[in-house]
């Protein structure tokens, strides 16, 4: 593979050295100076073109000659410009929005959301924030994560749970990046709200497979969220007032037009009501997004971005907790020349929680800190060949928990769990190569390495078995500790290295359809420990090391893509098959809290998932929207392995908690007139796999349930309808203040979707009962949004 | 410690939950198994000579038949060191009794049950328990500041790992409440253990403690293995909500030496227990 890349590089370098010239530059929006990601820049009458990158940069190389250059970015007027290529040159473009009247309602889906037939990129869902903002949501708060769930292959573990699942993967297998910083918890208030403030976000890209070689560290998906740069033309104010929370964003030019800034804040105010009601309980969240950039000169630009979000709650005098992400990121864009673009990032990110149990006089803190350096380069070798390459290094410092008594009479002893330190590095190269006019291939290789660093002692177990099968009782038990091995600060406890090949191709069948295929391998070195049905903010991350192996995943995908009626409609069909090695699962009765030796609670297993995804979109007209359907299966198997015995669930395959056989959704928006827009979501999903009782017996005067095989039952099917209407009052064209009212109903027909079903014995009657917990009934909401 | 996390999660769920209702659910039907409730509990200050072992059979989950007593088994407990045998005799209702049991702290015993040609066996060691230092009532501890709770104070021995089981039953209530604990985070400390009943505002089924209520309290010292078992049993019988651990088929220590797959439910436990009761003022 390496040799091949080299050959291509040489080959193209030679070809492009002669008679070819390059035009490069930045594409921006004229109104606010935001760089445009995904604008298409091409030479009319040729197949030579380029899509602008995250920083708006493009580069096209073509033989000497005179061309018409066209820049298109849907929702904006096309730019046409005559260009004579007789030398390398720089041109920047500013895109004007298409219609002043419909300035805020973009009825057209963004170009980048549409099917791109030629790019080998597949299994990618891109949502522009404008699309997200059109969708009806709970509590009137725009929610990125919930919008993604309307796309095929993306599900959620039910209401009241954090995170999301991609193609049968777990929550911790998603790499979530906000301006390149790793975000560990994507939800506020247990999934009520996403941590992404829509007013601060420019766009969202979700890679469900075919993850480019520049990303690594997670096996299931990459969610790449980019913050706005801030308006570089004039000051602007955006905000919204809702029932639960409100938000405000300020942006504008700074440094004498050499830069811009954005500050966005959001806060819930349930607490105000609670305080007013003289209630001791508190529950709330807030977050803050910051971004600024400074253009040193045409070739150098600096970006500084930050995020700080926090949830907190307090239950009377019993306990209180708070948790959240914080991240900061300094980036330096440097354009070496018209073909070589680079970006250096220094990133810090942190997730922590604090739990104070006033009741028993102690508190508990836990955190993850990571420091990340990345250097990414993109080389536009020729119109046929583009090369991405770079390096990255992440230093992790995990503090799984510290317990401190908060009074002298506390019954709790102080305790510090061992800090875990690790270093993860990656090196990658990825080529996009147009082999013929019809065939484009993308191939790359990532090498990742992970070192679990020393500076602590590790427990040794009899027969090197942290978990042992007790064949007499038929259960897994904790192994016997026989001593400790001390690892010095300069030593590593365990090292891993993995080659991760990634490849995909697109073959254009005709003007309107293409087929694509892809393969990718990815490794994951850190794991979220959660033996509960739903992930909670208090779950702890751990690293690969002496006993926990890195997860390794292989994914194969194939797809058919087609545009109809002059791109008014599009169809995407994809099939995938994915296997994951070393997926951990928990022994019966595992205790993950306050234990140093996680290895005594888990077994290494495997997972597999496969499915078929359909996405049909209508991209233009008064009515836009899409229908998505996924047919899939996600399973796990955990054999006894080193611990002996048959394994979890007798060593049989069992449904993963995120297996959904059918997942169907419709999203639509209808623009009635200048004042009214209506939109709606409909979702239908097979119920979540769960474990129900299969019998009962009398013990200690109670009826005790005996449970069936793991995840062999299912909750009732989940379905829901949401509707919303947006009203824009009459405005004078010159009035800068623009307001709109959003009225919405979540779960319009009040379906009691089961978040869980619990089996208990009625305390009064003594009979067994199944109790359904449903989180949201019908939820109306009203929000006022404004811009100035 | 787990309890605290559960409480928080419970609180979070409560904040979110808008609706709970009882519904009809179809469940699978597993094999019928023998249930062995062999709890040889030696109450402090007594001889511990009188012991009962209960045998019954499991039923489908929503079945309401209660008469599944096993009346035709033979039951025997042996002291592993001196070989002394205690033969339990059937007294009706599936209860097998002895009147000459000799409990010895840290002594291991073997249970043998023969039922329908299959032999079940289990092995366990008798675990001691410390005394209760103090019992009092309060309102400011516990979850709810306004409701009464009973506090039990005991001192954890520092030398070893200890595992505890509490059984609370208010006189007049249908069902007892079990709670388990250990000294993982409190080794050698004076431990206050509170027990409170919370008002169920929706159904009025559960009522908080009132002055005059009498609550019976049993405080058991249990083995680590039994603690693992009863911990899962308690957690699973509290219900399987959104944030609870995935329920598992729970296996006790009674193995079937004739047909291993046909293991029995229940447990052969040997404990020392302090029994008392408290009348709320």
Automatic annotation (TrEMBL), chain A:
InterPro entries: Beta-barrel_TonB, Beta-barrel_TonB_sf, CarboxyPept-like_regulatory, Plug_dom, Plug_dom_sf, TonB-dep_rcpt-like. PROSITE patterns: TONB_DEPENDENT_REC_3. It is found in: Cell outer membrane. It is a multi-pass membrane protein. Transmembrane segments: none annotated. SUPFAM superfamilies: Carboxypeptidase regulatory domain-like, Porins. The keyword Transmembrane applies. Residues 140-219 form the TonB-dependent receptor plug domain. It holds the Pfam family CarbopepD_reg_2. Keywords: Cell outer membrane, Membrane, Receptor, Signal, TonB box, Transmembrane, Transmembrane beta strand, Transport. It comes from the Bacteria. Its main location: membrane. Residues 285-747 form the TonB-dependent receptor-like beta-barrel domain. Residues 1-17 form the signal peptide. Belongs to the TonB-dependent receptor family. This is TonB-dependent receptor. It comes from Flavivirga amylovorans. The lineage of its organism: Bacteria, Pseudomonadati, Bacteroidota, Flavobacteriia, Flavobacteriales.
From TrEMBL, chain B:
It comes from the Bacteria. PROSITE patterns: PROKAR_LIPOPROTEIN. This is DUF4249 domain-containing protein. It comes from Flavivirga amylovorans. The lineage of its organism: Bacteria, Pseudomonadati, Bacteroidota, Flavobacteriia, Flavobacteriales.
């Amino acid at each position: 593979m390496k040799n091949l890349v080299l050959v291509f590089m040489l080959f193209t370098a030679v070809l492009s050295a002669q008679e070819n010239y390059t035009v490069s530059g930045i594409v921006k929006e004229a109104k606010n100076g935001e760089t445009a990601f995904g604008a298409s820049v091409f030479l009319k009458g040729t197949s030579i073109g380029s899509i602008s990158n995250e920083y708006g940069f493009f580069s096209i190389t073509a033989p000497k000659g005179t061309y018409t250059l066209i820049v298109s970015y849907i929702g904006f007027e096309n730019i046409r410009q005559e260009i004579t290529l007789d030398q390398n040159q720089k041109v920047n473009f500013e895109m004007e929005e298409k219609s002043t009247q419909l300035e805020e309602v973009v009825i057209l889906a963004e170009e980048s959301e549409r099917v791109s037939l030629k790019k080998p990129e597949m299994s990618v869902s891109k949502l522009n924030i404008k699309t997200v903002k059109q969708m009806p949501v709970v509590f009137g708060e725009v929610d990125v994560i919930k919008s993604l769930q309307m796309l095929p292959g993306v599900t959620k573990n039910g209401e009241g749970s954090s995170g999301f699942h991609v193609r049968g993967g777990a929550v911790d297998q998603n790499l979530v990046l906000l301006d390149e910083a790793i975000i560990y918890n994507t939800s506020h208030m247990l999934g009520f709200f996403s941590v992404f403030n829509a007013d601060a976000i420019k766009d969202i890209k979700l890679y469900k497979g075919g993850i480019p070689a520049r990303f690594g560290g997670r096996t299931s998906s990459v969610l790449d969220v980019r913050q706005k740069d801030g308006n570089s033309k004039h000051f602007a104010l955006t905000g919204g007032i809702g029932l639960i929370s409100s938000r405000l964003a300020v942006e504008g030019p700074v440094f004498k037009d050499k830069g811009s800034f954005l500050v966005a804040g959001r806060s819930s105010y349930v607490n105000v009501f609670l305080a007013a009601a003289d209630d001791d309980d508190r529950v709330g969240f807030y977050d803050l997004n910051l971004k600024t950039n400074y253009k040193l000169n045409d070739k150098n630009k600096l970006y500084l971005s930050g995020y700080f979000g926090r949830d907190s709650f307090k239950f009377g005098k019993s306990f209180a907790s708070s948790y959240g992400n914080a991240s900061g990121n300094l980036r330096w864009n440097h354009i070496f020349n018209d073909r070589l673009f680079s970006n250096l990032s220094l990133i810090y990110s942190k997730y922590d929680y604090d739990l104070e149990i006033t009741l028993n006089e102690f508190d508990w803190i836990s955190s993850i800190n990571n420091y990340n350096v990345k250097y990414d380069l993109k080389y536009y070798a020729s119109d046929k060949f583009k090369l991405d390459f770079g390096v990255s290094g992440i230093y992790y410092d995990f503090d799984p928990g510290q317990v401190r008594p908060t009074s002298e009479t506390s019954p709790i002893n102080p305790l510090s769990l061992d800090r875990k330190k690790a270093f993860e590095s990656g090196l990658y190269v990825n080529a996009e190569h147009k082999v013929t006019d019809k065939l484009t291939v993308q191939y790359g290789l990532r090498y990742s390495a992970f070192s679990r660093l020393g500076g602590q002692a590790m427990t040794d177990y009899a027969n090197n078995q942290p978990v042992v099968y007790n064949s007499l009782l038929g259960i897994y038990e904790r192994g016997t500790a026989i001593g400790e091995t001390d690892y010095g600060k300069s030593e590593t406890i365990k090292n891993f290295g993995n080659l991760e090949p990634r490849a995909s191709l697109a073959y254009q069948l005709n003007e309107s359809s293409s087929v694509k295929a892809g393969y990718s391998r990815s490794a994951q070195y850190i794991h979220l420990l959660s033996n509960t049905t739903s992930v909670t903010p208090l779950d702890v991350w751990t690293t690969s090391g002496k006993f926990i192996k890195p997860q390794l995943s292989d994914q194969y995908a194939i797809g058919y893509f087609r545009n109809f009626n002059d791109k008014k409609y599009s169809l995407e069909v994809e099939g995938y098959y994915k296997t994951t090695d070393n997926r951990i699962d928990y022994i019966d009765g595992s205790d993950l809290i306050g234990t140093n030796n996680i290895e005594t609670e888990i077994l290494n297993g495997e997972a597999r998932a496969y499915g078929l995804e359909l996405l049909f979109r209508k991209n233009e007209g008064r009515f836009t929207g899409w229908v998505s359907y996924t047919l899939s299966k996600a399973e796990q198997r955990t054999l006894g392995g080193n611990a002996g015995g048959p394994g979890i669930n007798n060593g049989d395959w069992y449904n993963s908690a995120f297996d959904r056989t059918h997942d169907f959704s419709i999203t639509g928006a209808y623009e009635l007139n200048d004042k009214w827009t209506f939109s709606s979501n409909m979702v239908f999903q097979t119920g979540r796999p769960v474990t129900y009782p299969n019998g009962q017996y009398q013990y200690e005067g109670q009826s005790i349930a005996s449970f069936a095989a793991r995840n062999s039952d299912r909750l009732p099917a989940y379905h829901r309808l949401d509707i919303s209407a947006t009203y824009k009052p009459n405005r004078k064209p010159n009035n800068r203040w623009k307001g709109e009212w959003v009225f919405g109903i979540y779960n319009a027909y009040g379906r009691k979707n089961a978040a869980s079903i619990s089996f208990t014995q009625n305390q009064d009657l003594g009979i067994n009962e199944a109790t359904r917990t449903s989180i949201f009934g019908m939820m109306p909401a009203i929000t006022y949004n404004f811009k100035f | 410690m787990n309890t605290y996390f559960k409480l928080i999660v419970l609180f979070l769920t409560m904040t979110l939950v808008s609706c709970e209702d009882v519904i009809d659910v179809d469940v699978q039907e597993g094999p019928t198994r023998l249930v062995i409730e062999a709890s040889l509990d030696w109450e402090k200050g007594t001889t511990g000579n009188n012991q009962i072992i209960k045998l019954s059979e499991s039923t489908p989950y929503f079945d309401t038949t209660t008469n599944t007593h096993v009346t035709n088994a033979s039951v025997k407990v042996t002291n592993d060191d001196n070989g002394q045998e205690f033969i339990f005799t059937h007294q009706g209702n599936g209860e097998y009794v002895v009147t000459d049991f000799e409990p010895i702290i840290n002594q291991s015993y073997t249970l043998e049950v023969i039922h329908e040609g299959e032999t079940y066996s289990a092995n366990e060691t008798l675990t001691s328990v410390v005394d209760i230092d103090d019992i009092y009532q309060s309102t400011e501890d516990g979850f709810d500041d306004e409701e009464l709770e009973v506090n039990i104070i005991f001192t954890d021995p520092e030398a070893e790992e200890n595992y505890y089981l509490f059984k609370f039953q208010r006189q007049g209530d249908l069902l007892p409440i079990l709670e388990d604990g250990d000294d993982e985070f409190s080794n050698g400390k004076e431990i206050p253990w509170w027990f409170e009943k919370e008002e169920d505002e929706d159904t009025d089924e559960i009522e908080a403690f009132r002055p005059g209520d009498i609550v019976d309290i049993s405080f058991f010292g249990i083995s680590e293995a039994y603690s693992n078992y009863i911990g899962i049993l308690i957690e699973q019988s509290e219900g399987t909500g959104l944030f609870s651990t995935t329920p598992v088929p729970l296996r006790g220590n009674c193995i079937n030496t004739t047909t291993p797959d046909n293991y029995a439910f229940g447990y052969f436990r040997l404990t020392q227990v302090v029994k008392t009761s408290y009348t709320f003022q």
